[in-house]
């Protein structure tokens, strides 16, 4: 499966019995190659520090869009 996602400004906390304080996750949204809409909860993302375009990646990672109304409905804390 191939999915194209875009970073949003929405951040939630993912909580479980093992993670008492939870872990922050940025909500990304996008769609599959066939056009099915998806929401992703990304806690970490990175690349090899030896990647020649590492600084460009860091700058792109900072950019994010406002969440759509669908994403905005997620509560600040999600219990897993």
Write the layout of secondary structure elements.
Elements lengths: L2 E13 L7 E10 L4 E6 L11 H9 L6 H4 L4 E3 L1
Parallel strand pairs: 1-4
Antiparallel strand pairs: 1-2, 2-3
Describe the structure using short key phrases:
2 helices, alpha+beta, four-stranded mixed sheet, about 80 residues, single chain
Can you describe what's shown?
The chain is an alpha+beta fold and 80 residues long. It has one domain. 16% of the residues lie in helices and 40% in strands. It has two helices and four strands; from the N terminus they run βββααβ. It has a four-stranded mixed beta sheet with strand order 3-2-1-4, with no helix packed on it. β2 and β3 form a beta hairpin. The protein is globular, with a radius of gyration of 14 Å.
Question: In sequence order, what are the helices and strands, one letter per element?
Answer: EEEHHE
* Strand order, sheet with most strands: 3-2-1-4
* Alpha-beta content class: alpha+beta
Q: Portion of residues in helices?
A: 10-25%
Distinct helical segment count: 2
Whole-Å distance between the termini? 24 Å
The largest sheet is: 4 strands, mixed
User: For the CA atoms, what is the radius of gyration?
Assistant: 14 Å
Q: Unreliable segments (pLDDT under 50, ≥5 consecutive)?
A: none
Overall number of structural domains: 1
Mean pLDDT metric: 92
Strand content: 35-45%
**Tally of DSSP β-strands:** 4
Tell me the overall shape.
Answer: globular
Please provide a brief summary of the model.
The chain has 80 residues and is an alpha+beta fold. The chain has helices at residues 54-62, 69-72, and strands at residues 3-15, 23-32, 37-42, 77-79.
